[in-house]
């Protein structure tokens, strides 16, 4: 199984909302497609598989500079292993992402102003998670340039 590093920022949602979604709802909101015209597949998203580990970091700009907040290491799981299975629609083709179509998870996503629906799927999409193991310490080299999702060595 692969290990990934994922970097979130306050561009779409606050640190608290992002952390709550990951740690309390075990969901990492992620679009399969970019908002470019025409939409393109988001980098590396199709490569993440059920069973892979995601080391989740939230980057915050502070008076001291850029700080990485560690949210934890999570494993990508199937709906049958997830507490919000009843809230899910279909899997996004060729990915381990799932559409959220109803229930409390959909209500929570709608309550976060910066999150939007995937531009092609027309639904909130993301990975289903479970907390799993120890997170790697942050290293800036994990995210060269504007990378958000990177395969770890």
Overall description:
This protein has 153 residues and is mostly beta strands. It has helices spanning 15-23, 103-110; strands at 3-8, 27-29, 53-62, 65-76, 88-91, 98-100, 124-131, 149-151. Strands 1, 2, 3, 4, 5, 6, 7 and 8 form an eight-stranded mixed sheet that branches. The N and C termini lie close together (12 Å).
Query: What is the share of helical residues?
Result: 10-25%
Low-confidence stretches: none
The CATH top-level class label: Alpha Beta
From the spread of the alpha carbons, the general shape counts as: globular
Q: What class would the helix/strand composition place it in?
A: mainly beta
Mean pLDDT metric: 95
CATH topology: ph1033 like fold
Overview in brief:
The chain has 153 residues and is mainly beta.
Topology:
Layout: E1 3-8, H1 15-23, E2 27-29, E3 53-62, E4 65-76, E5 88-91, E6 98-100, H2 103-110, E7 124-131, E8 149-151
Parallel strand pairs: 1-3
Antiparallel strand pairs: 1-8, 2-7, 3-4, 4-7, 5-6, 6-7
Features:
single chain, 11% helix, 2 helices, globular, ph1033 like fold, 153 residues, eight-stranded mixed β-sheet, mainly beta
